[in-house]
Write a structure and sequence with these properties.
Chains A, B: Belongs to the acyl-CoA dehydrogenase family. The structure is a homodimer. The model of chain A has no long low-confidence stretch (mean pLDDT about 95). The first copy, chain A, is of the alpha+beta class. The longest helix of chain A has about 35 residues, at about 285-320. The first copy, chain A, has helices at about 5-15, 35-50, 55-60, 75-85, 105-140, 140-150, 285-320, 345-375, 380-415, 425-435, 445-455, 460-480, 485-510, 510-515, 520-545, 555-570, 575-580, 585-590; strands at about 65, 70, 155-160, 175-180, 185-195, 205-215, 225-230, 230-235, 240-245, 245-250, 260-265, 275-280. At the A-B interface, helix 8, helix 9, helix 10, helix 11 and helix 14 of A face helix 8, helix 9, helix 10, helix 11 and helix 14 of B.
């Protein structure tokens, strides 16, 4: 019932974006169109053959804590072995480390496919890549040899240990301690919470990337350092040594994402827990945040993939399920029609299509920016792209988390009572997707990041670049048949959004609390404008494709209709949001706790 | 963590509505304010002591099919025994039947309390009441004696058997057959689907209310008749007789509402299945629809209750949980604050409060209309109320189902990662609530009912009554301090909504397909206008209360702030929706299946 829409992925990569052009870079020389298609073929095969088949069972039989060990459906290990054999653990890393030097754009498309198939199983390698990225960027050569290489090979898995029971959104308040030892290592003591992949018996070892405070450090984020804490110590020759003092304190039982072990971990409680400092003391959160863009884009990608899985499942169902007749057909003895013929079902499918494909467009656009930094001709050009990526990241994380969850809600609705049962995948996808607005920084935290930090950065440089890029695409679209009105519409919305941004930024600068009180509304508003831009870009690419020889007309007409839908049903909402933002409404801010 | 807000229920019943005035009617003479408070005390006690404690376990250990029988956590039976002892099974029925003649308004408040505590357990008596209502209204005296009386006593439970695997939204397409027998009874054969409470061992007997077709009947809805099909035949003396040929075919495994058995039933497969016709042949669906208002209001009430449970749980959490600091506090060593101090958390709580209390206001208003029909002085007055109730019913069913689900989403967000775990109730409430937009007519079906039927009824009589009632309340509010702007705002929105309705109704009359293509948007738009009206009514009542001796200022200030929130954050959205509706947008209608 869940199937990968390869036509859309190809369109997104090669029509809406110039992904094949990346092969002009020496680093990506191997990735011409044919090679990329080969990578996607392989990803689809591994995902459909090894990830999808156990997704429903894994949800029903979540990992269990038995005799001190985590027991997981053994098909998870088998799937990850197939993933490893296909070389995906090392996809983005340097060839000299054993990696494949895959462009982030392509790696994102691959991640999308695996997340569609089974996001819970896919989480283990994704977390491993996130942890490995940190060591790659900030670790010592010795740490890279000892820990990074086996992660790139898929032998060691990784985790990110940030939150603690009393410090979730507020990482400044972590209390895990790291005491320096004579040999340059540290002994860690403390408790970490919400550790995905926190324990398992699949990989030879687990490399925990742990935030902790060295005694005597300043309070707040400046006192946070980053440590490598392996589950098993690793000898100099790379062999597995003694068990380190990091222990599973318990598993969390979640609404969704149930196949991904989520654990509370104790450090240094059952014995000394050795950690190795990464980079400089006090820079732990700075390092984390330098890797955060990719992690947050990864969350958005997972949300989009879950949305896509539900969309494809509900689309397949809507084509098959017979129910009812058109409202102008009064002949009760006429046959029932497939529900895809009902306007409201088409609306539910269009809402999913625009959310899912609009999200994927944005996420691949953001991934392409990551690659474009590598291709940029100057530090100035690199900087401009980085600032734009910084600005887009909270949107790329949050918009899919919100609106692809909504898409999953619609997918259930298309299936009706059947969709509400565990016989179909859509209820599971909906449960899984509910996490994405919470982890890697909640929706509200992303909003503060966008309005309180990214918009303010360097006098609004990110916003200026964004506006310039949108206007360049508006100009392109303006001359194309059928797109003139959409182009003008987007330009008008953008101008209003820029004006609202200016007004809010001035307020935030002088008085942060009222300025930031409606940051979440601002995030949603900007997200809609950005997704409208993504739809204009797709409609532009589709229109051009229609003029090429032998186009796939149905596919391209679908893109144009989806663009019309988004501009008619979704984009206009932002006007109401801007009116609220412009008024600096303080109803929520002034609400007193005792009034609830 | 879940607690009943008795202050709000009292405000809704006695300040926003004149519930105590119902005791002027002979039928309700027993229900003065003190008696109603006593009923609510009893409901709260039974709900908190017997329903709430097993709610989480019941969700984790759903009913199972063992050796041909349904095995359910035995606390369900114990809770229902307490419910029976308190007399709630017979709440609304005539005293001569053993009922309590409780006003529907009061019964709704009672239902709200039980649904908050444990909607899965509460479903058994609610379904029994729905089935009993049908027999009460359309059954013969003999059927009332044999089946209704033990239902009123809570000894027999009831179910509604409408859907079949191939006929969910389209009941015209049911194929269950009822063959007449010489003794006046019928033999039924067929399969029913989604039967809540479809089998269990708690009650002495189960009375299934079954829609079926008598051979030779016309196609479509006019061929549908209603039958009583007991699980066990009942002898003339009321004793339980032989097992009837209705058999459990399987249990459905749902995302939520897991404590309520949901079954597929076979009729006449394992032996003859006897049914007794209710009323006239061919009128089955007409009878169902005469009872549908109360059933649909019941669904809305359940949705509101689930929203309320999540709101109360997240409010309690937000007062206790320490996390972060105000954005203008740069002192990392200052203590963390309760998250209820953060503007965005207050927004999430206000969104819940307005959805939940706005819904409850509407549902009690609708229930009061049911009572008011009994109190009306003339057939003309009764008719006017009935038409208004008809119009409000799809809104009262759908708006809470949509926006109290959204409230449950927010409740999870307030709890963050904790909210996503099964250690807290909010994820369960969210799963439970997802059903409400599906059963008793999906969201899309409600929209067609509203725009295609209720709005068109008697030349828009319902809409005229609604507008007149809203304007009467606008006039009341207009003179009150702080409410003038809201009153004017609502009047303007109402005028626009009426204009949009006129435009759509004209289209629906001439060409139903384009006219109804955006019926769901219309439903949501009208819902928001109606809920804004409910908030203006509550703000009016609160303002008056503030002028009375010794008012509860915090509670009343909360009502006024919530009204401001709804008018600032929610009501303005409807303008965008009306613009779309006015344009008769046909993007969804014209989308071709092959374009997806």
């Amino acid at each position: 019932m869940i199937s990968v829409d390869r036509a859309d992925i190809a369109f997104q990569l090669f029509d809406a974006l110039p992904t094949a052009s990346l092969s002009a870079l020496p680093r990506f020389a191997d990735y011409d169109r044919a090679a990329i298609d080969g990578v996607l073929d392989m990803a689809e095969r591994v995902a459909m053959d090894h990830f999808l088949p156990h997704a429903a069972d894994l949800d029903l039989n979540e990992p269990k804590f038995v005799d001190g060990k985590v027991v997981i459906d053994e098909r998870v290990g088998a799937a990850l072995a197939a993933y490893r054999e296909a070389g995906f653990f090392g996809a983005s890393f340097d060839q000299e480390l054993g990696g494949a030097q895959m462009p982030e754009t392509v790696r994102s498309a691959v991640g999308f496919i695996f997340s569609m198939a089974n996001i819970a199983t896919a989480a283990y390698p994704f977390l491993t890549t996130a942890a490995a990225n940190l060591i790659d960027a900030f670790g010592s050569p010795e740490q890279k040899a000892r820990f990074l290489k086996p992660m790139v090979e898929g032998r060691f898995f990784g985790t990110m240990c940030l939150s603690e029971p009393q410090a979730g959104s507020s990482l400044a308040d972590i209390t895990t301690k790291a005491e320096p030892q004579e040999d340059g290592s540290y002994f860690l003591t403390g408790r970490k919470m919400w550790i995905s992949g926190g324990d398992q018996e699949i990989s030879e070892n687990i490399v925990h990337m742990v935030l902790a405070k060295i005694p005597g450090s300043p309070p707040g984020v400046k006192g946070i350092s980053l440590f490598i804490v392996p589950k098993f110590l690793v000898e100099e020759d790379g062999s597995i040594g003694l068990r380190n003092g990091v222990a599973l304190a318990g598993l969390n039982h979640k609404m969704g994402y149930r196949g991904t072990t989520n654990a509370a971990l104790n450090f240094g409680e059952d014995g000394p827990c050795r950690g190795y400092p990464v980079g400089d003391p006090g820079k732990g959160l700075v390092y984390m945040f330098q890797m955060m863009n990719e992690a947050r884009i990864g969350v958005g990608l997972g949300a989009a993939a879950l949305g896509a899985a539900g969309y494809r499942a509900s689309l397949a169902y809507a084509r098959e399920r017979l129910q009812g007749r058109h409202p102008d057909n009064k002949d009760a003895s006429s046959p029932q029609i497939p529900i895809i013929g009902h306007a409201d079902v088409k609306r539910l499918l269009l809402a999913q299509k625009t959310a899912v494909e609009g999200s994927l467009a944005l996420l691949l656009y953001a991934a392409f920016l990551v690659d474009a930094i590598k291709a940029a001709p100057s530090e100035e050009a690199r900087h401009e792209i980085r600032i734009l990526l910084d600005l887009l990241t909270p949107i790329a994380k949050s918009w899919p988390s919100e609106f692809c969850l909504e898409a999953n809600k619609h997918a259930i609705q298309v299936l009706g009572g059947y969709g509400y049962t565990r016989d179909y995948p859509v209820e599971r996808l909906y449960r899984d997707n509910r996490l994405n607005a919470i982890h890697e920084g909640t929706h509200g935290i992303q909003a503060l990041d966008l309005l309180g930090r990214k918009v303010m950065q360097e006098n609004g440089a990110g916003m200026k670049t964004l506006a310039a890029r949108i206007m360049a695409d508006v100009t392109q679209a303006h001359g194309l048949e059928g797109l003139t009105a959409h182009a003008a519409d987007l330009a008008a919305h953008l101008a209003e959004a820029v004006a609202t941004t200016g007004k809010l930024a001035a307020k935030v600068g002088s008085n942060p609390r009222p300025g930031l009180a409606n940051a979440t509304i601002y995030l949603d508003m900007m997200g809609h404008v950005v997704i409208a831009w993504m739809w204009l870009r797709q409609a532009t690419a589709a229109t051009r494709r229609l003029g090429s020889p032998d186009p796939d007309r149905n596919f391209l007409d679908g893109k144009l209709a989806a663009c019309r839908y988004f501009f008619a049903y979704e984009l206009p909402r932002t006007r109401t949001q801007r009116a609220l933002l412009d008024s600096l409404d303080d109803t929520a801010l002034k609400m007193r706790p005792e009034w609830f």
